[in-house]
Design a protein that fits this description.
Blueprint lengths: L1 H24 L19 H4 L4 H12 L2 E6 L2 E6 L2 H10 L11 H6 L13 H17 L2 H20 L9 H17 L8 H17 L17 H26 L10 H14 L11 H32 L1 H14 L14 H13 L9 E2 L4 E3 L2 E3 L4 E4 L1 H5 L43 H18 E4 L26 E4 L2
Parallel strand pairs: 2-6
Antiparallel strand pairs: 1-2, 3-6, 4-5, 7-8
Helix pairs in contact: 6-11, 7-8, 8-12, 9-10, 10-12, 12-13, 12-14, 12-16, 13-14
The protein binds protoporphyrin IX containing FE.
Protoporphyrin IX containing FE (HEM) binds next to helix 6, helix 12 and helix 16.
Length: 498
């Protein structure tokens, strides 16, 4: 009797285990094809390995097709590798894929999705996006940005001139320059280049990036979050430092806030929106803007706005040092069109080769190669395949930017590809979406373009970046893959134009 029960128990266990295994790896019917997932981890190694996931995904598309599915830990996902598929998913079906995946770590970091980038689309989120967008457009416009750059240039010049002798790391001036602009926009300060408030933030942001690395297993396999993990505690500690940094600024603004005075910075604008909504007699979901929301919006804009632009300019300087003929052409264009006076925002459109070079940097080194992960918020389809609700969607922007159907010799750095026969910047380019598209398109696109143009054109107008004699191969090469495409630290020499 005992023997039979033991056998039954074992058989029962084996049957259960096989059924669980089958269910765990079984692809839902109608989904695009893809590799058979490993039990539990699925194809998580594609995202967390040492090879850039965007390249691995492009390679997989050669086997399974331009749209394929993979299981990332516990979550079924589809990967889109062409412009046509991305257009269908993000523009034709503009709402269907506008969600974000659940994330234990980001839920904590955003006080339960009270931000913009991680939050799922709700009326409150829509209102916050609109507020952020309107404020950013205000600061990305003419005089405000022109004045900020006028303020920072003397200090930047002094710093760069002090580096004439020896090769140095261009991040030493790119990072504070970007912080200066975004910091002034958010907090309204006039900083020194090495202002302790900026230095402190740079330190927090770097530690935050390092501790996030390229994701946390608990976000892919939910039960993993119950296992105590030093990674999460390290992230939390540095996340709390970021909260207290921003909250301190919000408090300073709240204490001296005058709803009738003109808004001097982003926090003032948000406080004004808060006061207006309250004055209109109560706040419904569509106009909800608590102090926590306010903190989260500022953190989002400050974080998303700084690292992305740093990355683009860091690659840009490396590309100039590696392609001196491009640098000479930009300098010639600037000399011909604006001469010695500092560039203004209104010069955009008059310097097509300069703009084309920045666009080529964003194509060639796609700063956010997989955008931010999307999620289907309803049962839907892409191409001829079903995409069930809650499927994650990876937008392979890097694959779009390297698609030979649209880009001749995509591995070559060639700004001319962005110019038409009349030497004007091509408009509405297909397969070029560095800021993504659709409902979750980057909120800071206008500011990023304007600000990069202002810094980059002024730098090349005044300085020549040269590869050090002892550097073999290209100056700027890829660092370990992360959410952003970082270049490894490198050094360049800087000279004055003769
Ligand atoms: C060259 C610089 C930048 C690049 C290449 C870039 C690119 C992107 C990309 C690809 C996304 C993901 C869109 C998606 O999920 O489909 C994104 C989202 C976002 N970006 Fe940017 N970005 C840049 C600069 C900025 C700046 C300057 C700000 C703000 C000051 C900003 C704020 C945001 C925010 C808040 C989101 C989340 C939008 C949402 O989820 O609805 N970005 N960005």
């Amino acid at each position: 009797m005992l023997d039979i029960s033991s056998t039954q128990l074992i058989v029962g266990f084996v049957v259960l285990f096989i059924s669980w295994l089958y269910m765990n790896v079984r692809r839902p019917s109608g989904m695009p094809p893809g590799p058979t997932p490993y039990p539990i981890t699925g194809s998580m190694s594609v995202l967390m390995g040492n090879d850039p996931p965007q390249r691995a995904m492009k390679e997989m598309s050669k086997v399974y097709g331009d749209i394929f599915s993979i299981k990332v830990g516990s979550y079924w996902s589809v990967v889109l590798n062409t412009y046509e598929l991305v257009q269908e998913a993000l523009l034709t079906k503009v709402n269907d894929f506008s969600g974000r995946p659940p994330s234990f770590i980001f839920d904590w970091y955003t006080d339960g999705q009270k931000d913009i980038a991680v939050a799922n689309p709700t009326p409150t989120w829509k209102y916050h996006r609109l507020l952020a967008h309107t404020s950013i457009r205000k600061f990305a416009a003419g005089e405000y940005l022109d004045n900020l750059h006028d303020e920072i240039r003397p200090e930047l010049s002094k710093f760069i001139m002090s580096k004439m002798e020896k090769p140095f790391d261009p991040n030493e001036f790119i990072v504070p320059a970007i912080y200066y602009v975004i910091g002034s926009m958010c907090f309204g300060y006039k900083y020194e280049l090495n202002d302790p408030r900026l230095v402190k933030y740079v330190d927090i942001a770097k530690k935050l990036n390092d501790s996030f690395d390229n994701g946390w297993t608990g976000d892919f396999i939910p039960w993993f979050k119950y296992i105590p993990n030093p990674y999460f505690y390290a992230f939390k500690k540095i996340g709390e430092a970021m909260f207290s940094y921003v909250l301190k600024e919000v408090k300073l603004h709240t204490d001296k806030f005058d709803p009738d005075a003109p808004a001097n910075d982003l926090i003032d604008l948000l406080l004004k929106a808060q006061a207006d909504a309250e004055a209109q007699g109560g706040v419904d979901e569509k106009k909800k803007l608590t102090d926590t929301h306010l903190k989260q919006i500022i953190i989002d804009l400050f974080t998303a706005g700084i690292d992305t632009q740093n990355t683009v300019l860091h690659w840009a300087i490396g590309c100039l040092a590696d392609n001196p003929e491009v640098q000479d052409k930009i300098k010639q264009e600037i000399d011909d069109v604006i001469g010695d006076r500092p560039p203004r925002l209104s010069d955009r459109g008059k310097l097509p080769y300069t703009e084309a070079t920045l666009m080529e940097v964003m194509r060639y080194r796609t700063p956010v190669p997989l955008a931010l992960t999307h999620r289907a918020i309803t049962d839907s389809s892409i191409g001829s395949y079903k995409v069930p609700e809650d499927t994650w969607v990876f937008i392979n922007l890097w694959a779009l930017h390297n698609d030979p159907k649209y880009w001749d010799n995509p591995d070559k750095f060639r700004p001319e590809r962005f110019l038409d026969a009349k030497n004007a910047v091509k408009q509405r380019l297909p397969s070029f979406l560095p800021f993504s598209t659709g409902r979750r398109v980057c909120v800071g696109e206008s500011l990023a373009k304007a600000n990069s143009f202002m810094i980059f054109s002024w730098l090349v107008q005044n300085y020549k970046f040269v590869k050090p004699e002892d550097t073999k191969g290209p100056v700027a090469v890829h660092d370990k893959p992360r959410i952003l495409t970082f270049a490894k630290d490198y050094k360049v020499k800087v000279e004055l134009w003769k």
